[in-house]
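Hi there, hope your week has been kind to you so far. It would help a lot if you went through both lines with me. No rush at all, and the record is pasted right below:

***
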Amino acid sequence: MSLRVGVVGGGLVAQAMHLHYLAARRDQFSLAGLAEPSRTVREALGARYAIAELHPEYRSLLDAGGLDAIVVCSPAGTHAEIVLAALESGLHVFVEKPMCITLDDADAIVAARDRAGRVVQVGTMKRFDPAYERMLEELPASASALLYISVVVSDPEFEPYFEPGELVRGSDVPREVVEATRAAEAEQVEAAIGSGAPHVVRAFSESFLGSLVHDVNLVHGLLERMGEPLPAEVIGGDWWNEGRAVSGSIRLANGARWDSAWIQLLATHEYREEVSLFFADSVRSLTFPSPWLKQYPTVYRRSERDAAANAVRVAQFYGESFGRELDHFHRCVTEDEPCRTPPEQARLDIGVLAQMFLAARPQEVASHAQG
């Protein structure tokens, strides 16, 4: 069964990943519509992917009808409104991370999904990386021997990975749309953590919820597999360099510690992302390529003692998580496969990330809120 899909938002992730993989899966998806406020981008992508229904905003896309599902790739502050409207229209929803900004909106999405009886899948794609799946399969049944988790990401963003002109840019988004989008995001960030100041919005919405969320979600999946109670205790957090570098720390039930850091490095072309779990008897790690590189391997490494030697096993996996998550979405809709990245999971991630953020500078956030 081919699902008639509308895409909301024609920015980076839509152009680099979702439109590509949707178009490549013609037996599963039909690109029926696109909503994008930039006419330049809208018409260019419509021509590139032969999308007949082009709309300046999501409401007219929904009102036009003829859809089975939507893929939400718009700015984070618009996600909750669009997801709720799509569910009200009876559509299945794939929504890019973060699903939303506030816990109240997360609860509203869960309730609306249950009322509508539709699928809502969140685009935390690392759960679909085959290297992650292999690590998950090999984890012990308990986290009792887990001593430490380390996550470090250095990110040059997207510039090194695309040729000039490959990504369509438009400077013709109406000013009122830009201003309304920014105001909605700031309002939601203020509701979530107490301040909507620009540097706070950048740190929380863009860096914690937009970037660090990937590895928080990944580690949550590993801990859940080992029966670790979640959410675990947040014991620290920090953000600096105008919110372009963030970190958070967690204490697990057995006393082990988990530290995560994401650092934006725009002046380099160096992408590094490593998730390492240190057990009493083994070290297991995942090393990811930039998400913008297609068919580059994720490396799973496991080492443990073998008598007087150290046995090291390294496996490389090439399956594309962005494509595999869309395969899963199709099965969820057409075959009732249980959703692997549901809204409840996203709510857990958002709550933990908010606690990390507030652990960093609670007095600064409070002073901005009062001012």
In short: The chain has a mean pLDDT of 96. The chain has eleven helices and 14 strands.
